[in-house]
Amino acid sequence: MNFLAILLFSASATCDSLIIGLSYGARKIKICFTSNLIVGLISCLGTMLGMYIGNIFNGFLIGSITQWIGSALLFLFGFYMFYQALYKQIKANSDVKIINDAADLAENFDKDHSKSIDIREACMLGLFLCLNNLGLGIGAALTGLNIYITSVTCLILSILFIEFGCRLTYNFLSYSTVKYAEYIASVIIMLLAIYQLFF
């Protein structure tokens, strides 16, 4: 179950990569493998750094206190992610605007409007995506998830999500994914926090 927990955590932590990929697919913006790899590596490093920080805190805490603090952090991050998704939906007032806002945000990283993400733009995109992973990584480490397996899983899923999103036809499936992905990811994080605490 520990690997399943790592897989679910990593999928939730990198769900923004899927939304970015879908948005690029919709706007016909290309991202080559090298740029995609850079985004994934930065995302991976963000997770790893957060988990290293979590492990440092772990050295100063005693017994089950670590588990409680880690689960509380994960739950709070999950709750914040849910709040952010809900706030964006209320502010947008329509499903179409939610989709367009996500696509506009993704397109902002194509600074030269070349319809292609170069290495410099990939670094900026990676830094943007890894901010979430930094905080989530601290909580994940305190709950006992393996730092290396979790970080590598985040790397792989980030690359796959962006690639899959870019290739997927912008249809009902992708439309629904953009709309609900953040809700699903936040709920998974909160459920994982509870699971890691009691099981």
What report would you give on this structure?
The structure is a single chain. The chain is an all-alpha fold and 199 residues long. The chain has one domain. Helices cover 83% and strands 2% of the residues. The chain has eight helices and two strands; from the N terminus they run H-H-E-H-H-H-E-H-H-H. A two-stranded parallel ribbon has the order 1-2. Helix 2 runs antiparallel to helix 8 and helix 3 runs parallel beside helix 6. The radius of gyration is 17 Å and the shape is globular. The model has no long low-confidence stretch (mean pLDDT 85).
How are the SSEs ordered, and which strands pair?
Elements: H1 2-13, H2 15-27, E1 30-31, H3 33-58, H4 64-92, H5 95-107, E2 116-117, H6 119-142, H7 147-167, H8 172-198
Parallel strand pairs: 1-2
Give a quick precis of the structure.
With 199 residues, the chain is mainly alpha-helical. It has helices at residues 2-13, 15-27, 33-58, 64-92, 95-107, 119-142, 147-167, 172-198; strands spanning 30-31, 116-117.
Terminal-residue CA separation:
10 Å
Provide the domain count: 1
Q: H/E series, N to C?
A: HHEHHHEHHH
How much helix is in the residues?
A: over 70%
- Sheet-strand content, in percent, reads under 5%
- Physical arrangement of strands within the biggest beta sheet: 1-2
Largest sheet data: 2 strands, parallel
Q: Which stretches are poorly predicted, pLDDT < 50 over at least 5 residues?
A: none
Query: Shape, please?
Result: globular
Note the total helix count.
Answer: 8
Number-wise, the strands total 2
User: Averaged pLDDT, please?
Assistant: 85
What integer value in Å does the Rg equal? 17 Å
Find the structural class using helix and strand composition. mainly alpha
